[in-house]
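The authors assume throughout that readers already know how a fold can be written as discrete tokens. In essence, backbone conformation is discretised, so a fold becomes a row of integers matching the chain in length. A single example would do more here than another paragraph of explanation. For illustration, here is how one protein appears when written out as sequence plus structure tokens:

…
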Amino acid sequence: MYQETCIKALEQAGAVESKQHLLRWFHKVARNRAIDILRARGENVMQLSDQTLAILEEDWDSRENSRRADLIDALSRCLDVLTPRSREMMSLRYFQDRSGVEIAGMTGTKVTSVYQTIARVHKALAECLREQPEYQS
């Protein structure tokens, strides 16, 4: 069921407006597919009302948004403890979408040094995030 839903999502990729849209769509497709499977087995399907499903979906969205905000806060705290050079490398790479070659040219460092720095920062951020209470939940 999960694989079928993922395939349907890939087939509809052009119609997806946002991550929220995709999540809502995915929930509906998965729910409908699960009901189809139960019906095919001859099992009695008790379905929730559209109103109940809308309430659940709203709750899922609010929980997702809350969790995302908590993780962003945790990541922000972890980024704050990086050295200025490391923060600059991450900013160039992820906020300005620069390649390692471009970053090397802009900072006057070797390309291999850029990639090594980014790898070390990834590791440091992962360790920092694991220590954050928001990441634990």
User: Anything to note?
Assistant: The chain is about 80% helix and 0% strand. The two ends are 27 Å apart (CA to CA). The chain has a mean pLDDT of 81. The chain has two domains: 1-47, 65-137.
